[in-house]
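Session log. Operator J.P. requested a structure for one protein chain; no other inputs attached. Running the standard single-chain path with token output.
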Amino acid sequence: MDYTQIEKTLSYLNSRPQVIPGGSACNSVIGIAALGGRARFVGKLGRDETARIFEKELKKNKVESILFRSSSPTGRVLSIITPDAQRSMFTYLGASAETHPEEITAECFEGAAIVHIEGYLIFNRELILATMGAAKQAGALISLDLASYTVVESARDFLGSIVNEFVDILIANEDEARVFTGCDQDEQAISALSKKAEIAALKVGKRGSYIACNGRISKIKPQGTRAATDTTGAGDLWASGFLYGLVNDYSFDKCGELGSLCGYEVCQVVGTKIPAAGWERIKRQLEKK
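Structure written below.
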């Protein structure tokens, strides 16, 4: 969808839409900062009002930023939620699609323990290779979220090669794992994923998740009992909790439980912003474990 189509769609609304900084990796780093971690976002914006809002919100959420600029409009995603809590995304990449491989250097990731990359970046092969190379040069572990089964279908061989060469932490949901590994059963899929990266995580929705490392597989129970209001950002915030736990040397079980708590709380609201009360519940629950 292009910029004008998004604007036209918004003109049909009776109320003002909620506007927040987003994108999968951005959602994850905002969640990490909310948990008390140090987080940084690297990306490219335009020079428009959307860019101003984005940068302001990153600062408000205590996220460091390295933001390159373009004369093109800032990228936007229009998320439409249906009554059954599912969502459709209409995306305009804008300035973000103009990020050049040479702009991403090791200095972007200075001091980072983990560099988290969303799978959609695979559509720009030169850029994802430059990003992973720079992350390794900076001494960081690389976390890759497979993003969508359509992403995996479109570039399975290339994806397999970069996972083998660069990725330390591989995160997938059941559909992505099925396409990537060819395995339909949860236990088979997590076992196959664990052979491709040192740490593997498989998210299976209401059934919870699996974490694998060094031949050990943990089954993580789902958290919470209320039905979802909106599933937008569930996987992104799951990654927030999981990666925050890893950096802070939590057990794999506790990392998975924190991921599930974050994923559950974001499903109780519309959008990807967990309110302060939700973060307090997450932290209280974490202290009990």
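Operator note: The chain has a mean pLDDT of 92.
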